[in-house]
Amino acid sequence: MRQPSDTEAQAPEVRLVGRLVTELESIGAWLQPHFRRREAHAAAVEYVKSLLGRAQRKNMWGLSEDAGHRAPYAFQHLLLRAKWDADVVRDDVLEYARRALGEGGILAVDETGFLKKGAKSVGVARQYTGTAGKVENAQVGVFLSYATPHGHALVDRELYLPESWAEDAGRREVGGIPDEVGFESKPALAQGMLQRALGAGLKPAWVVGDEVYGRDTTLRRFLEDLHQPYVLAVASNTHVWRGFYQVKPGDMVKDIAPEDWVRLSAGAGTKGPRLYDWARMRLNRHLGLSRWLLFRRGLVDGKVAFYVAHARRNASLESMVRAAGSRWAVEEDFESAKNEVGLADYEVRTWTAWHRHMTLCLVAHVFLAAARAMANLQLQEGLPPKALGLPRRRNPMRAFLVRRGLH
Question: Residue limits of the Transposase IS701-like DDE domain (predicted)?
């Protein structure tokens, strides 16, 4: 049998790199209408490429050096004074994610912390953050992640503003906080982001979140009134209605018969399937859909985690388990966004600059998700590397980044 020539063997990878180059250039094209001045648009494109670049520390100086600038003035102007609306760009991020990753995915809400020194960065306060696992001096951002079988990425962001900031006129002025912005809880910020996504016509299969969001009855009712299925974690002492009585999940788990527990995987983990024992209990109906209590029991320690689900009456236990397990995607998004596109490396202090930096990080992050989806599709449709005569160590994504000077 004739062996493929070097040109033939490399053709699939060459085509993929070419598609990725075109995709990166298209990012600049869809950013262009959002900027009045050519200089600001050019700076935004450079900023996104630098976020994808080789700088180890992606602060203003590191990004500027990676872009070939001697000083960070162009990027500082982009975040602080240039005329552009970060919220409109943010809306386009979701549309880009829908095109690149497909419809019918899962929306996950979660927050992450950004450790800070001093007290001048907008929203910074002594507050609990999962980043440190304790109370630290930090800013906290609430984010929305979109996941489909093709990939996942962060698509929306809001800065959590503690009451100590919201009620202090002096700090508000220094931080450049708009007059219309007041204190909102994390679930309220999540609801606003979900409202934007659903209002844009997105029809996710599920909305998922941890206890911070699951215990908020206003958020749950908001989703129920829209007939939106969800699986939200709750604490054992959360009150839910069953019939005409309020019950607590921690009490109701005792009523689950041994034969009603089913061993299922909540998705693939780093060490294989994430296996747990699962059970559920039907609660009340609301607007044609049913509420459920979902229970997850550890195989080793026997600890039980609790969820409230809202779904069709015929929704399977397996579908709820898959939804509950999909929440880990947002944790992976935080890790990759911080490690790969500088989500946490910023050194800005004002409200506008924070949201602009985060928005451009979303642009870079969703591009990476789209690029990985393309690479995976190419590998699925093409022959294996060995059949193509390619070394197994060749990585199309790395080849693309190297070729563009981004790795």
Answer: 31-248
**Number of CB atoms found within 10 A of residue 179's CB:** 6
Q: How many residues does the chain have?
A: 407
State residue 285's pLDDT score. Answer: 79
Phi-psi region of 189 (alpha: psi -120 to 50; beta: other; left: phi over 0): alpha
- C-alpha 182/C-alpha 163 separation (Å) is 8
Cα separation, 134 vs 117, whole angstroms: 16
DSSP code string of 208-261:
EE-HHHHT-HHHHHHHHHTT--EEEEE-TT--EEETTEEE-HHHHGGGS-GGG-
Say what the pTM is: 0.89
Q: Are 123 and 132 in contact (CB under 8 A)?
A: no
- Summarised one tens digit per residue, pLDDT across range 60-107 is 999 999 999 999 999 999 999 999 999 999 999 999 999 999 999 999
Cβ within 8 Å of residue 368, ≥6 positions away: 52, 153, 336, 340, 341
Domain ranges in the chain are 6-82+350-403, 211-326
**CA distance linking residue 139 with residue 161, whole number of Å:** 8
Distance (Å, whole) CA 351 – CA 346? 13
Q: Which two tokens stand for residue 314?
A: 């015929």
Residue 129: CA count within 13 A, CB half-sphere: 19
Residue 55 in this model has a pLDDT that exceeds 50: yes
The continuous run of DSSP H or E covering 293 comes out as strand 289-297
Q: Tell me what the mean pLDDT of segment 1-16 comes to.
A: 53
Rounded CA-CA distance 108/146 in Å is 7
User: CA 212, 249, 256 angle in degrees (round to 5)?
Assistant: 140
Assess whether pLDDT exceeds 80 at residue 405: no
Convert the pLDDT of each residue in 199-242 to its tens digit. 999 999 999 999 999 999 999 999 999 999 999 999 999 999 99
* Beta carbons of 326 and 106 less than 8 angstroms apart: yes
Q: What is the structure's pLDDT at 264?
A: 97
